[in-house]
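Possible regression after last week's pipeline update?

I re-ran a chain I had predicted before the update to compare outputs. Posting the input and the new output here so someone can diff against the archived version. Not blocking, just want to make sure nothing changed silently.
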Amino acid sequence: MAAAPPEKFFEGDTPHGLVKRIIYKKYLQAYVAKTQRSGLKTIIIDGFAGAGRYGNTWPIDIEKYGSPMIALLVALQFLYYVCKRLSIPWLFNMYMSESLEWDQLQGDMVRTIQEESEAIIPFLPGYGCSKKKMSRKMYLYFIEKDGKCFTQLVKCVKTYLYIFLRQLGIYNHLKFEQGTNHGYETVDFYITHKDFPLECHISNCEFKDFEPPQMPEWSRRLTFLDPFGYSDTPMEQVRKYVDDHSEVFINFMSHQVNDAIEKIAALYGIPLRQFVLNIIRMGENTPATNAKNCSRSYIEHIKEYTGAEYALMFEIRGRKNAVIYHLIHFTHHRKGLEAMKESMNTCSQYEGTFKMSDYRIVCEGIALTIGNQQDDAIVAEDVYREFRGKQGVPIGDVETFVWEHSPYVYRKKILKILETSDPPRLISVVNEDTEEERVRRRNTYPDWGKWLLTFADEDFEDVLSGLKALKL
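New output (post-update):
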């Protein structure tokens, strides 16, 4: 079946599409907060941006927009809350006597956009090259090859930025520039107010033709790739966006492995025979396992070519419960892994794996519940199986096991479950820091301690004897 034209695709929505955007939004919120609070510049690139909205609505919920608008709204939301938390005087004097929560502000803006004509948006003054450019903290780059979607996205960003800044009384700080770069059209927006140091660049070109912008000093970059197929994401291009300071979140169209295996091998840049052998080597030759194995093979190659230390995969299934695609995240940093795992955990419909299915929602009538639904008792069982009978285990080893070698997120409650079980399976918790005078309360594991853990074995009495000998 032929894919719908991009402009038609953005007229509707699906449960799995919503889940994908919730995961992206939640991760972006953590990513922006972490990088900004660490004093770093934040760069967000959307390689297949689309039109920005689904249909003609202006939703209040951030995740109901397209991916570029999600990035823009998350960035503005963070900067707004910084101003609110610091009680910036102009925010209270010019807009309101008491600053609003984000949802209230967003609701006011949506009503304003819906009630007023597009004529309310004046001609925005250009950002003259002779003017001194201020130091910015956030850089957004949106890439869209379809002309209609590009035009709609520019209009969407322009409308939102103008109304947002007008609500705050600083709309005169919005500037823009139109031009060309390497033969394709570009539109650039700049906010010149010191409390909203953000710029947004929109390019009408293909991702494979887009060269990554030079990264400023002390910056971090996240690239989101959500293509309609394989041909626009060659391995050589993706590799440019994964390094020590950059990470990639990609929608990998794994369901096409059975119909487009030659194209996928070309995408990897490896011989077709080698690719087929890789897929077959990983498991039985069925459409479902081929799709998953194809994604795993892709992860292996990206990690091999880029040195990315961590990768996470979230499986998306459609109305017929067949695999549609896998969301894959690559990063060099443990904190990035933890934040993405938290995001995926809130959207998974299955225990012990990151997966959701439209079939369960549409056909079986099971409501999509967003939130941490992990059963910590099951995680505790996994931890016990890994560390059973071991003595003096640093608490950090348990954290590493859960974060890096299990499909779960780490919670201290896991240790409490083991310590309070009958009989107890966590039988000793001592502080390696002998100079620390504070004493922990039972079933707690404060961050100030360097805790060593001892786990019971089947031969419980022998373990206790060993503890007494070690004077633990």
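Follow-up from reviewer: compared with the archived run. Residues 15-37 form the longest helix (23 residues). Marking as no regression found.
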